[in-house]
Amino acid sequence: MDSGDISLPAPPPAASPALPIASSYPSHAQPSGPRPASGHAALGIDGAQADPFGAQRRARAQGLRKRIGSILAAIGVAAAKFWAAIKGVVLLLPKVKLLGTMGTALISVAAYSLFFGWTFAAGFVLLLFVHEMGHVVQLRREGIKGASAPMFIPFLGAAIFSKSLGDNALAEARVGLAGPILGTLGAGVCLAVAELTNSSLLLALAYVAFFLNLINLVPVVPFDGGRAMAAMAPAMWFVGLGAIATLLIVSHNPFLLLFLVLGALETRRRWRARKTRSLEQAAYYRVSIRQRVAIGAVYVALIVVLILGMDASHVLSAGGHSFRTI
């Protein structure tokens, strides 16, 4: 029983022929008796005889291939009809700037909702959109064309892209401050409606919007405050870099390191350009004292309003609030 093969002796001549019984290792099975003589095909394991079930297997395989081919053909026809229906829309997609805004906005909502819930995430992205539209509107007022629609970057905010922010530092300052101005108005609307409806969600959105618009006034490029400093006092860019470096040391926030590097590179580039003392640079940064005072007044007023707004809409999770549950 422990050998590889098991067989029965050949039967007497009067009996019907018997088949050898092989073990589970057919390549080793050797019948000990003579091969039965019969008019029927034997179930030969060595493949010398034809398999009576082969025709059925081939028929089933052919039927399966035909069914698969029919399914693939149907899918191909459906895909062709679908492409014919949407072809015109697809060809227009590269020309629709709003698509990039909508797509990146949906991605940002999905990303923020993992931490704060989708209702807060949707409101937050909408307030970012309001802020960026402030820049877009002012760019149009400055006569600058070709600016992109707002693009959202999860956990970094949003941005617009333009080849120019104006012909001079004063125009750049107006474009930079337009974002926080409209963003502050958006946060104020959230605060007012929250007070009228007793909505914790809107109150939290107002607080976060006030805070982010305040952060954007840090006096270093590429923040909006750095744009304002281009018209007021470019040397304040170094003060802004110092402030970000201090916050990085205190908070260990990795995003601050990114902003510090970007700010340092942009400040170095612009400061070196100013040091050339070219006529072009002199014309760009030529701003009258009255205009500097006006930009400074708007800048300081925004800071005061944003701090007061944060105080009025103060929401802390430690106080029993959670962005997921409000």
User: Based on helices, strands and strand pairing, what is the structural class?
Assistant: mainly alpha
**Helix and strand pattern:** HHHEEHHHHHHH
Contiguous low-pLDDT stretches (5 residues minimum) are 1-49, 89-95, 317-322
Please give the order of strands in the largest beta sheet. Answer: 1-2
What characterizes the major β-sheet?
Answer: 2 strands, antiparallel
Number of helices: 10
Number-wise, the strands total 2
Strand content: under 5%
Q: How many angstroms does the end-to-end distance come to?
A: 76 Å
What's the Cα radius of gyration?
Answer: 38 Å
What percent of the residues sit in helical stretches (DSSP H or I)?
55-70%
Number of domains: 2
Give the overall silhouette: extended
Mean pLDDT: 77
Your description of this structure?
The protein is mainly alpha-helical and 326 residues long. Helix 2 runs antiparallel to helix 3 and helix 3 packs across helix 5. The longest helix has 39 residues. The protein is extended, with a radius of gyration of 38 Å.
In short:
This protein is mainly α and 326 residues long. It is built from ten helices and two strands; from the N terminus they run H-H-H-E-E-H-H-H-H-H-H-H.
